[in-house]
Amino acid sequence: MTEQRARELVATWSARAREAHGARRRRMSFDEYLAEVLAAPERLGRTAVQYTLDALRAWGAREVPGLAGPTPRWRIFDAPFSDGRERLVGQQAAQQALVRILEGFEREGRVNRLIVVHGPNGSAKSSFVTALMRGLEAYSQTDEGALYRFHWVFPVGEGRGSRIGFGDAAVDTSRLSTFAHLPEEAIATRLAAEPHDNPLFLVPEAERRELLTRGRDGGGWQPSAQVLEGALGLRSRQVLDALLLAYDGDLERVLRHVQVERFHVSRRYRQAAATVEPQMHVDAGLRQLTADRSLASLPSALQNRTLFEVHGPLVEGARGIVEFNDFLKRPLEANKYLLVTGEKGSVVVDGVLVTLDSVLVATTNETWLEALKTQPDWGSYRGRVELVRMPYLLDYREERLIYDDLVRELGCGGQVAPHTTELLALWAVMTRLVPPAAAAAPEGVRDVVTRLTPLDKALLYGGGGPPAGLSAEQRQLLLAAVADLAEAASQGPDYEGRHGASPRELRTLLLDAVHGVQGGVVDPPLVFEALEELVSDPSLYEWLRAEPRGPWFRPSAYIDALRERYLRTIEREVQQATGLVDEQAYGELFARYVRHASFWLKKEKLPDPVTGRLVEPDAGFLAEIERRLGVDEAAEVFRSNVIARVAAFRIDHPEASVELGSIFPDLVGRLEAEDARRRRAALDEAAADAFEALEAGEGSPPDALTGERVARARQTVRALGERFGYTAPMARRMLAAHLASRRQGGD
To answer: Which one has a higher pLDDT value, 317 or 157?
Structure first.
């Protein structure tokens, strides 16, 4: 039965493979291929640059939040073809720079510069290129992304009148218009063309130009000079010339020997996607083929020729992407050929000129690039490269995705408590920030800018809003200045995002924490301990040795700031989980305040929600709310600022509904905190009861608690799980941290 089932599976797989093989037309004659070209010249006449751009456009783009507002992100870097596995997180600016450079190459009709992606160690430079290659792999599997190469096919024998000496005829080929579909037993030799050879190059240049430009005098797609003027590689040229000579120039008979084959981009098999590691020589070579005994059955017209093939990663990556990984780690002399290759799209290999159709991308870290800039050769490089900067991420929301992806990959979501990856990401971003340049902000908010802490700036960059205590005008000015502050910080060699904690190091830290607890809980307190150990030895990392400037460049202090933020966060969660503090009620209360303040400022009456009659705004209610908020400025000024913030939100977001909790998180939070202070004893008791219930375990209520308190404790634990994502072990550790903070006088 097992063997029968195995045979059935193989038969099913075989049927699917045959169906896929036929649907994709993996092998064609040259005439069949030419028909495809006539039907879609813009698809089959693309260069590597055009192909890469089409792959990017095929997956499309989406808008994501950015420092200067919504910014496009190319979906190919989200890896939708693999359910997001190995996606590139963030780096929208680098994506836009890449597309801009490729579009420039497309307009110029050729690749004439080397793209150099640079940034600090661990900033995802290689991941950036890999994501692009993976996108090309997926695109090449689609009908729109079909790529073709060709082989020379020589049958076992040819019919009467053969003039090129195929030996004894095994198959009568005299009536065949093509040898492309001969069965394998009828083929004496299949000679693969070089990877960079496009089947279009078999068409003479004048006819090729006519073929691809016919009826395309107007706008739209235009064929590139690389395709219009491209030529076959040395080996295929030798074969073509020999066959033309043997057939007295009859191209139709020559093309019978052409078998066109579809291929796919593949990093694993180095097809149109190749990575070059640092080495000491040119990344291509020339070798002789005629010594290969598999070629003994070549026709006599070719056996008296010495055939060569070009090999190496430069050739393997042809018609796709060649990545030079850490290319500045090898001596400059070994890289100099790239200057000409990048500028002219060709390389000389053992005296043979090889034309390449590839996107050439190099990666390097900032240290090596800065060293190159001090060398006399930098001038030669600068005019022949396009620099794409990839700093560390500065938006903690994006940084968090890196650690969330790791948690998902490890399958340990039940071990990592809420806020863990968020706080780790915040700390990472804080280590990368530089003090804001007040001069880049409007004058009315410069004093605010000088007072920003690293946490304030990290939250601003992450869309968290300005710090509390600002007027409506200050908030508006500060939010408008964020992009300018970021631009000012991006200038110079020590730009923001060049130094600081690497995601690679923090992934390792999180990974070690997960393995270290062996099935326990990884939560913020545990991560804070790991971070304290990380920063304890400044000799390990250069960024730990930066000279402190006020609150800046103090990684240990950043841990303390985030510890306080964590304690405030879990305190709010405990308050809400107990049911003694209802955050929705405070939003509604503040909405009522805004309504009364608006009518009070306009000196108008408002309709009573119960009777519908017009009544005066409740001045006593307004004053009470302001007292609870701790307002220390004139009532009219404060109320005017509140209404101005609402008006500004409506102007900036005309389609959005007004959510006062989002516009005034600081003020609504103050109301909630003030009420929590009044209920402190009850809240502490409820938190302690929930902790005792967790310690006792399910079904074993603590002896000290009454039935009512047990029910409330279990409800609190359920709320922590349902509303905030805490498992029982996580909730127990979180409540322990909260209660310890309360015992130490935390308020």
So the answer is: 317
Local structure of residue 440 (DSSP, 8 states): G
> Rounded distance, CA 554 to CA 547, Å?
9
Task: Kindly report the backbone phi and psi dihedral angles of residue 282, in degrees, each rounded to the nearest multiple of 5, phi listed first.
Answer: -60, 140
- Torsional sign, CA 228, 230, 231, 232: negative
More confident residue, 97 or 693: 97
Structure tokens at 163: 């003039």
Compute the distance between CA of residue 487 and CA of residue 491 in angstroms, rounded to an integer: 7
Give 121-139 pLDDT, tens digit per residue: 999 999 999 999 999 999 9
Contact 553, 501 (CB under 8 A): no
Q: What DSSP assignment string belongs to 154-222?
A: EES---TT-SS---S-SS--TT-S-STT--GGGEEEEEEPPTT--GGGGS-HHHHHHHHHTT-SSSS--
**pLDDT at residue 341 in the model:** 72
Give the pLDDT confidence of 544-563 residue by residue, as tens digits. 999 999 999 999 999 999 99
Average per-residue pLDDT in the chain?
83
Distance (Å, rounded) from C-alpha 90 to C-alpha 95? 9
Comparing CA positions, the residue from 618, 600, 619, 620 lying closest to residue 609 is 618
Instruction: Give the count of alpha carbons within 13 A of 374, CB side only.
Output: 5
Tokens for 671?
């109301």
Report the C-alpha gap between 299 and 239 in whole angstroms. 11
pLDDT of the residue at 505: 93
Q: State pTM to two decimals.
A: 0.83
Structure tokens at 469: 């205590």
d(CA 46, CA 357): 10
Q: How far apart are the first and last CA of the chain?
A: 71
**Measured distance CA(307)–CA(551) in Å, rounded:** 69
Question: Which value, to the nearest 10 degrees, does the dihedral of the CA atoms of residues 515, 521, 524, 529 take?
Answer: -50
β partners of residue 705 = none
Angle between helices 454-461 and 420-432 (to 10 degrees): 110
Q: Which residues contact 195 (CB under 8 A, 6 or more apart)?
A: 149, 271, 272, 315, 316, 318, 319
What are the pLDDT digits (tens) for 161-208?
333 444 444 556 667 888 888 888 888 888 877 777 889 999 998 888
Residues 6+ apart with CB under 8 A from 698: 728
- DSSP states of 241-263: HHHHHHTTT-HHHHHTTEEEEEE
Residues 607, 610, 612, CA angle at the centre, nearest 5°? 35
Question: Which among 157, 130, 420 has a CA at the least distance from the CA of 265?
Answer: 130
State the Cα–Cα distance between residues 597 and 298, nearest whole angstrom.
94
Contact 24, 16 (CB under 8 A): no
